């Protein structure tokens, strides 16, 4: 499996393969094709954009506008339509261009899609995958840079995955689309260009399972999405001091993999969770709390989280870089734990 | 559109009576405290749900509202299970976990009452999209109130239905009030149907107390939808017999004048009269239907009361499908 | 101060006094008066409802429809209008009838009101108090029983308060309305009838300060809203076994009072947080995580949270009672800690 | 409404040139990589922002969009601080923390560009409510795109403005596209102005490339608003010179035909011609304005480039007011 493709290409390929396999799969979103009813494009069967980042490029020409549906700018409308289509037998994959737009469409997930099965006494199935983007680092400022996977993850009935690399992106997306529940598939827009090995065939990565990306016995670092790379950097640096860090890529934010995390902490006795979300009521804190309950007796030091500060995302590049959890901040945090370790 | 025949007239008369009896009984029982939560009664508006659903099969979808019992009954949901649901019993349509505001039966094409005003619009769009995509002739009917017409979902959804020519019929139940707020205060347009042109779709206002007016307007609209001609907006002027929910003092209702005259009209009596006049129903046949309806509702109450509450472990079930 | 009034009356009184004091204070919401443009009511200057629970009853007759504004059913519209009015100098108090309706209006808080000041380089002030209701126990089922104060509290720039009794309700609401930021004031609808002593004068309870409702040295229980009464019940029962429980009523959920909580845990070494919100990414977990970091060395046992199960709120009364954190569940949790204590 | 006089004509011509020059320069600079993030340029649509804001004072409010530079300039925001903001500098209008999509100046009545399509509608309602409540004669103008007209906030907000007769003017900038999606696909109504009657408010469509057409329509609407006669909806047909944002290939634009003919019109040249013909501007005066505009923008760039980036500690500031 030597083929290396970009994160966004892996997502495109997963969508392509899911659509090829199951004609119940349809895509909806703003400009996921682009140029609907534009004469020169209709003639050439071309999409104008293929999504604002080009992730869905080529799918409309291949599957047509009945399956790759450009919507008006009506997030509540088309996200809710996806819920309705899912409840009645299709397998829609709506795209919420930026997860920040959830303010315009939360009800469809919070009160409708996620609760239908329960409220209806088990009769409904809502096989719907919401593709969305999150993350700071693109100078997109306060309203286009948030990381709200934790907010989605707080809603019962919703699964949330956050891939960190092309391989997992493809496999998780295929799992998500096959899943009979609402799955929010949250893509870090700053990872789109990242390349990695991706098999050409249809394969799945299991939802709900974290991956140990590096083994170690002294310290566990759990990461979400691109925070993985911060942790790997930190682990390299700590290795120079003889500290062996175990790095866990969470992959699924809801329901997150308690077993893998807790087993690791039982071994290392020390935990840092890195999450670029706003610092309160987020996934990092959830993990820290569960570990502080279920693995308390194995802990050799305080449970640490490294998150964004409690501010909106600033525009200026220098501030935005400061905003994001950095190796420097994680190293400082690790130092607090490791002092202890050296004693 | 088919002309109303005897069989259908009997069906209509039965459903109208079922709704009225169901709601009147729930009204009484609620007052005794046996039914928990919020209950919004449909009595008075029967002509709308029944006039529309008379054209639908189990393959067609509807989305409903917080005031959903009438739509449920008209769409063919089981009366026993409905009543049990409102009581919160394990034999309920939703195993007691939904209640009055979330009563639903997807197998019957009933996509749920909805506790969220305006929550049904986008769901109806989704059902319409599905019907169109699968090249069925099925339609989706979206029932909504005059108050709901001021939610953004109304706008987004009707616009989408229009541009995609979806087989969706928007049926507005304009009962003059959203809770205690009159439509003439809350709406910038005099009529809800005035909004159709904003989306380039046909729209009309009909007398929602007149079963036949609703039946005919709905019939045309549903036929258009089945033929791929796109959505329609029908505004049905109606009135509810009870308050917004049980417990409402209804100080905002007029005690005389046009509003009150309208309020006093009984769509069931009017339909009976019409059907008997047109020889669609015999007086004896109508009486028989009335009686069987009363019995059915009595039976439903008995069924509900004798049913068990849900087992504790069901609290944790049906969050996810596997 | 012998006067005892109901929780809802205390809120009504706070609104009344705030409006009397500052004519920039206006109220907006669905049927907060009711009956706008209804002839017989206009004639009598009467409100039809005064809110769906009657909390704002009488304010329209006193202050008129220019200040007590019935809105169409347009949550995004009037909540956003409140943001606009606040940014331009008024002090609006919109009511979101049930906090579950946030799905229809989240943007106004998430992306607009909470971020304006920051995005605008400090130029804006958004003195707006969102009154809303939360909580299970009223058989209002899945879409009208949620507890989303933790979701609001995860948004930088938003303060969130959850009073447990009439006295704090009045004082916190007056503080909220005077505050120059968005404050979500979340009322448990099942507490409306609860009576307590409330001074007649205008007084404030400080936002950001928790209150110790019972002192103890063995175990800390932190509560939000009506969970206080669960904790007090538990404390009574534990007292019979000689266990002294410290009970802290959080009152402000964001920013919550770290000092009071941590000081208490330093003393007791044991913590249970009770929060009726959905179990993941909530305030209870946030508190547990912070304590697991900052007070780790003082802990004598695992950090516990007692929350709702990860399900929507069920309708049937028996299930709903099981859904809510109960003294029984808290006692079982306490038992785990106390076994340890007894050793 | 005042007839256009020489002074105002000069002001208009200067603002139009400022916007065009500002945007053309940002376009160039963005290509070099000195400006980060998403940038949406207003060039081509100057007649709308300027034609409307020509009637406003600092006490009036506007809400803007992601394509906000034009509104900012027309409303009187400082060019230096604007450019510095787009560069992310501490001297920026928002101290570098907002950027192009959040540029704002409340002191000038500019309530912010808005990264959320449709985000401005309710805020304009709030400003209108404030103006009415405080018994001022001030208005609030809500600029919005053709794409934004499909958001639910459009519907909810215009309805509220109508029922409360708020002093709000809704100015639609119909540039035919929302990103890469044509209005003729996304909208169920042919014209955005077709939606006015749904709210019982006056509405009209004007040639948005014609400064005078916008000026006159806006003048009437703003006068109505100031006189307490309520809201108006004005649709201005226009076109953007650049792509949706910088980096857009614009494959969806027509390269010939009516659309292209319209696209090629230059509202600034047209206004110059008109003003000179009507002796509102002399040719020499117009040239002088053009020159001073070029200089002002050059200065703004210099100001921005020489300014410092924000200090690290500002990351944590201005989250809460105290
Ligand atoms: C999103 C949302 N907003 C508000 C409410 C509260 N509410 C329930 S019913 C109702 C009135 C609805 O009026 P209308 O649409 O006319 O329906 P009707 O009750 O008259 O049948 C309101 C405001 C709600 N349930 N959901
Ligand atoms: C709520 C929301 N949805 C979608 C977007 C993405 N988006 C940014 S601009 C835009 C198109 C807006 O079109 P229009 O209103 O016509 O304004 P124009 O760009 O043509 O000036 C879209 C879809 C957004 N920023 N916010
Ligand atoms: Mg109504
Ligand atoms: Mg546009």
TrEMBL record, chains A, C:
Keyword Transferase: no
Pfam families: Transket_pyr, Transketolase_C
Keywords: Oxidoreductase, Pyruvate
GO molecular function terms listed in the Swiss-Prot or TrEMBL record: oxidoreductase activity
Oxidoreductase is among the record's keywords: yes
Residue ranges occupied by any Transketolase-like pyrimidine-binding domain in the UniProt entry: 5-194
Protein name per Swiss-Prot or TrEMBL: Pyruvate dehydrogenase E1 component beta subunit
UniProtKB/TrEMBL annotation, chains B, D:
Annotated ranges, domain Dehydrogenase E1 component: 15-313
Superkingdom of this protein's organism: Bacteria
Organism: Liquorilactobacillus oeni DSM 19972
CC cofactor: thiamine diphosphate
GO terms under biological process: pyruvate decarboxylation to acetyl-CoA
Annotated InterPro entries: DH_E1, PDH_E1_Alpha_Subunit, THDP-binding
Keywords recorded for this protein, A-Z: Oxidoreductase, Thiamine pyrophosphate
Protein name (record): TPP-dependent acetoin dehydrogenase complex, E1 component subunit alpha
UniProt lineage: Bacteria, Bacillati, Bacillota, Bacilli, Lactobacillales
GO molecular function: pyruvate dehydrogenase (acetyl-transferring) activity
């Amino acid at each position: 499996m030597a083929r290396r493709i970009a994160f966004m290409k892996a997502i495109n390929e997963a969508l392509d393969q899911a659509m090829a396999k199951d004609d119940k799969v349809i895509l909806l979103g703003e400009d996921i094709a682009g140029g609907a009813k534009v004469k020169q494009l209709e003639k050439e069967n071309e999409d104008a954009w293929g999504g604002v980042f080009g992730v869905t490029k080529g799918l409309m020409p291949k599957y047509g506008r009945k399956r790759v549906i450009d919507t008006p700018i009506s997030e509540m409308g088309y996200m809710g339509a996806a819920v309705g289509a899912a409840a009645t037998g299709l397998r829609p994959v709506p795209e919420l261009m930026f997860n920040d737009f959830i303010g315009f469409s939360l009800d469809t997930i919070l009160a409708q899609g996620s609760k239908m099965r329960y409220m209806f006494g088990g009769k409904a199935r809502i096989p719907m995958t919401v593709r969305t983007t999150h993350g700071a680092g693109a100078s997109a400022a306060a309203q286009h840079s948030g990381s709200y996977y934790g907010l989605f993850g707080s809603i019962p009935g919703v699964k949330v995955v956050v891939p960190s690399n092309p391989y997992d992106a493809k496999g998780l997306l295929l799992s998500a689309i096959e899943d009979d529940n609402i799955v929010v598939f949250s893509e870090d827009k700053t990872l789109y260009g990242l390349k990695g090995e991706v098999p050409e065939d249809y394969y799945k990565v299991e939802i709900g399972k974290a991956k140990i990306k590096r083994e170690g016995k002294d310290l566990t670092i759990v990461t979400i999405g691109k925070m993985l790379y911060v942790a790997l950097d930190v682990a390299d640096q700590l290795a120079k001091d003889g500290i062996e860090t175990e790095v866990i890529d969470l992959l699924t934010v809801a329901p997150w993999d308690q077993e893998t995390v807790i087993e690791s902490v039982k071994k290392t006795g020390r935990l840092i969770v890195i999450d670029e979300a706003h610092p309160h009521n987020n996934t990092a804190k959830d993990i820290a709390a569960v570990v502080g309950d279920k693995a308390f007796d194995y802990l050799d030091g305080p449970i640490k989280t490294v998150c964004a500060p409690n501010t909106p995302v600033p525009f200026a590049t220098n501030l935005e870089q400061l905003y994001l959890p950095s190796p420097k901040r994680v190293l400082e945090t690790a130092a607090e734990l490791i002092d202890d370790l050296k004693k | 559109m088919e002309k109303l025949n005897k069989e259908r007239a009997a069906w209509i008369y039965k459903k109208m009576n079922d709704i009225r009896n169901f709601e009147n009984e729930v009204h009484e029982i609620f007052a005794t405290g046996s039914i928990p939560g919020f209950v919004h009664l449909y009595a008075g508006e029967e002509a709308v749900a029944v006039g529309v659903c008379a054209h639908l099969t189990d393959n067609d979808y509807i989305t409903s509202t917080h005031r959903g019992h009438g739509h449920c009954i008209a769409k063919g949901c089981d009366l026993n299970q409905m009543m049990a649901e409102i009581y919160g019993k394990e034999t309920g349509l939703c195993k007691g976990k939904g209640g009055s505001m979330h009563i639903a039966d997807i197998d019957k094409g009933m996509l749920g009452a909805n506790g969220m005003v305006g929550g049904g619009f986008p769901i109806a769009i989704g059902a319409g999209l599905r019907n169109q995509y699968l090249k069925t002739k099925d339609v989706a009917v979206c029932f909504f109130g005059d108050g709901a017409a001021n939610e953004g979902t109304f706008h987004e959804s009707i616009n989408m239905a229009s541009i995609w020519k979806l087989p969706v019929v928007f049926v507005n139940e304009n009962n003059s009030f959203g809770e205690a707020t009159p439509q003439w205060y809350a709406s910038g347009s005099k009529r809800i149907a005035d909004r159709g042109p904003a989306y380039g779709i046909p729209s009309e206002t009909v007398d929602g107390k007149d079963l036949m007016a609703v039946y005919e307007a709905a019939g045309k609209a549903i036929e258009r939808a089945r033929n791929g001609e796109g959505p329609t907006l029908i505004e049905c002027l109606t009135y509810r017999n009870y308050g917004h929910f049980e417990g409402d003092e209804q100080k905002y209702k007029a005690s005389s004048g046009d509003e009150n005259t309208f309020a006093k009209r009984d769509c069931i009596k009017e339909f009976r009269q019409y059907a008997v006049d047109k020889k669609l129903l015999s007086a004896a046949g109508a009486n028989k239907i009335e009686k069987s309806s009363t019995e059915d509702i009595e039976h439903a109450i008995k069924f509900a009361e004798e049913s068990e509450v849900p087992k504790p472990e069901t609290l944790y079930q049906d969050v996810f499908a596997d």
